[in-house]
Amino acid sequence: MTPMPNVSVLEVDDIQATVLRPRPHPYMGQYILLRIDDAAQGREMLRRIIPHVAPAVDWWTPTLPGWMGIAFSYHGLKALGVPQEFLDSFPREFREGMAARAPILNDVGENAPENWEYPFGNADMHIALAIYAKDDESLAAVLEWARQSHHELPQITVVYRMDFSELPEGRNHFGFRDGLHNPSVEGSGVPVHPGYGSPIKAGEFVMGYPDERGEITASPEPEILRRNGTFLAFRKFHMHVAAFRKYLREQASTPEEEELIAAKMIGRWRSGAPLVLAPELDDPELGADADRNNAFSYESDMSGLKCPFSSHIRRVHPRDALDHDLVATNLHHFLRRGTNYGPSLPKGIMEDDGAERGGVFLLIGAHLKQQFEFVQSQWMTDGNFIGHGTEQDPVVGNNAGNGIFTIPKRPVRRRLHRLPQFVSVRGGEYCFMPGLRALKWMAGVEAETARKHA
User: Are 267 and 313 contacting, i.e. CB atoms less than 8 angstroms apart?
Assistant: First the structure.
């Protein structure tokens, strides 16, 4: 990857690479969660690890064997000794944590926090490390950096590890090409392919810059802590692949119809070709072309005959479909960094083999409430904005066996009933991902020093 010819206006040497730069290809890695039981040891760990945290500058050059990002829960910042007056300046949703927001996020039933894996939804999750690499040797090197950061610090405990890797052809466990679209961040220097739309103001994703309203975020305090930082919603999902395949088989009379129904649910064919541009048959060449597979709008499909209103991609990114409504879509974008875990279910298998498989998503933005929480609670869960009542996202919605999916069709629309749970939430948390200067400040934080920077 090469940078855009225009000079970046963001302080990319201070912003963590995970925020602005895409994952490597191919990729593999590990998520590590840590608990801090002694603030001094926690700050010592930070001092050791900071040199290995990758900045967004020169992310595309292969100078590092791997990449590491670091983020903190509210409880983690508290365990590090960040003064309470500064902790209180963080947004309410971050302070409460994702588990406490479960009713808003529709994390109920099987998705409820009481069913999450430890330490998600628990005050023991303090630090999250996201480690990416291109191969086993590189991954081993970065994991050793991480290990050395808390070596002989007995009050720092690893409470969770999870391996992840890229699946064949860059697809997810349901067989769809993954990671095809992210908003373009103004001034980031990241290449922009056609169809990504106008760049979104950097302040929507990174603090310290004007957002779409022309405002610059004034919290949390102090300024050194928030500048070039952001928030992320960490979400781990288990994918019920066999259930997805069985449902398609039950609803279709031919393999071709199975593929069409699957495409209608997602809004793209498995190749990545969007239905708006290939409404009848898959077009793998289109799906693989980064300069064409996002170059579409819904202006020619306002009836949803090509791409249903309730399809996954149309719900999470309505593009111009809501331009005539009182919805400022540019206020609800977030950056998405997705990874896969677990083995693929072999083709043709229709019964669950009991293996753990799914995806982890880091949903990044400067405004958790109006970005992740809005999209999750309104566009993905509430069908009223598209005139579909209680109809949820057909693939990642919390349908629990009673879901409905409407496919516009002439002369009569088709409705699929009794959608099962295709995706289950296994855990999640809200985290703060500081800039590199903020990490250094945090590594030496003391109440008196902090007040001087206020």
Answer: yes
